[in-house]
Automatic annotation (TrEMBL):
This is Arabinogalactan oligomer / maltooligosaccharide transport system substrate-binding protein. Residues 1-20 form the signal peptide. Pfam families: SBP_bac_8. Belongs to the bacterial solute-binding protein 1 family. PROSITE patterns: PROKAR_LIPOPROTEIN. GO terms for cellular component: ATP-binding cassette (ABC) transporter complex, substrate-binding subunit-containing.
């Protein structure tokens, strides 16, 4: 499922609990004589028989490894992108352990719906992941989830049209074929501006005082570049329906920007894996210089409800579901790209074109997506992109339009 950007600011009260995994000294220990019931929530796809019932299988494996606990599992279905709505509606009735998209973290924290992690669990998050992935579940100095896959976009292309050398440069690609891009979607649009040094709350995505920097010196040259792109007949803007795969299948376009969630559809559209190429984001030529596009990087992670009665067991399960063995199984059953550093270098995983591209993109062509203060950007990005597409941004006003855009994106209240 294509990632959808959700608002990051909701009113709520802060209520968090510190967990330190199985070795937490202040957790109430669970008696092995008591039957424990845990409700676990994840996407329907991870519970489907056609996909090997990944979630149920991993929970059963966890129980086998922890015979000291008698565990009964209940399962609830919800996509990672909808987890926030389910949990914050009534935290006391929400699942004990759940899968969520990291851009919901601030709202989950404010609603008291997600537990801080500590001890061995926190250590695992920091040591088993690249720094950007670990930071994707970090808020105000604390870690709240165990990442199990990254969330970023890369490029798919038709190998019959473009070579591996062609796809290093967007401008070179546009000389040979048609490329589509979701210019009116802020999640993608940001990659154009970060190419020329624009930042979102500093280089780490977490420095509040730095704000969003789309200042004219850095951003106006990008706006001017985009003005030229939209007039290029080989540059195709993805429509409001977000469908770039159908045109890829008909040959109306030859390359798209998307994620590993649509790999199978891309393979079908291009007539088989032999025709499918994947690559990190290309460079774009700004003021005569090739600049590397950098898209937002997020993650999907396992969270624990602080209202869970069996805290010790819930945290241990969350760590297991986000652990190396579970990530390997997730790749085997659904081709979910792992983030554990022991897996991201394995040949069998890198042999998968989409997973390999995602792993490389996460390291080479991404920045951490901020977890706060983004509402102003999301609100302003779509109309700004549409103004570009409609040629409302012109040679005479593009600097003013860019400066106005910069003011709008910094209109978010940071909390």
């Amino acid at each position: 499922m294509k990632r959808k950007v959700l608002p990051l600011v909701l009113a709520g009260t802060m209520a968090t609990t510190m967990f330190a995994g199985c070795g937490a000294t202040n957790d109430k220990k669970t008696s092995g004589n008591d039957e424990i019931t845990l409700t676990v929530m994840g996407p329907a796809e991870d519970q489907a028989k056609d996909n090997g019932e990944w979630l149920q299988t991993q929970c059963k494996n966890f129980a086998k490894e922890h015979k000291e606990w008698k565990i009964k599992f209940k399962y609830q279905k919800s996509s990672e992108s909808d987890a926030k709505q389910v949990v914050t509606k009534d935290v006391s009735a929400a699942p004990d352990v759940y899968m969520f998209a990291n851009d919901q973290l601030v709202d989950l924290v404010k609603a008291g719906g997600i537990a801080k992690l500590g001890g061995d669990t926190e250590k695992y998050v920091k040591e088993s992941n690249d720094e950007n992935i670990a930071n994707s579940v970090k808020y105000k100095g604390h870690y709240y989830g165990i990442p199990y896959t990254s969330n970023a976009f890369f490029m798919y292309y038709d190998k019959r049209v473009f070579s591996e050398d062609d796809v290093k440069s967007l401008d070179k690609m546009l000389e040979k074929g048609k490329v589509s891009f979701p210019l009116t979607n802020g999640w993608y649009l940001s990659a154009m501006y970060t190419a020329n040094g624009c930042t979102f709350y500093g280089k780490d995505g977490a420095t509040e005082k730095d704000k969003i920097d789309l200042s004219s010196e850095k951003a106006a040259p990008v706006t001017k570049y985009l003005m030229g792109l939209v007039k290029n007949p080989n540059f195709v803007v993805v429509g409001d329906d977000g469908d770039s795969i159908t045109p890829l299948g008909t040959g109306a376009v030859n390359a798209i920007f998307d994620g590993n969630w649509n790999y199978d559809k891309v393979v079908e559209a291009l007539g088989g894996e032999k025709n499918v190429g994947t690559a990190v984001l290309p460079t774009i030529k700004i003021d005569g210089k090739d600049q590397q596009m950098k898209g937002f990087l997020g993650s999907k992670a396992i969270g624990v409800n602080p209202k869970c009665k069996n805290q010790e067991v819930a945290v241990a399960l969350a760590k297991y579901l986000g652990g190396e063995k579970a990530q390997q199984a997730h790749f085997d059953t659904r081709k979910q790209a792992p983030v554990n550093k022991n897996l991201t270098s394995k040949k069998e995983i890198l042999d998968n074109a989409a997973v390999s591209a995602l792993v490389k993109a996460s390291k080479e062509s991404t920045i951490v997506q901020p977890l706060f203060g983004m509402q102003g950007y999301w609100d302003a990005a779509q109309p700004f992109g549409k103004a570009l597409v409609n040629n409302e941004v012109t040679e005479s006003n593009y600097k003013d339009k860019t400066e106005e855009f910069n003011k709008q994106v910094n209109g978010s209240k940071i909390s």
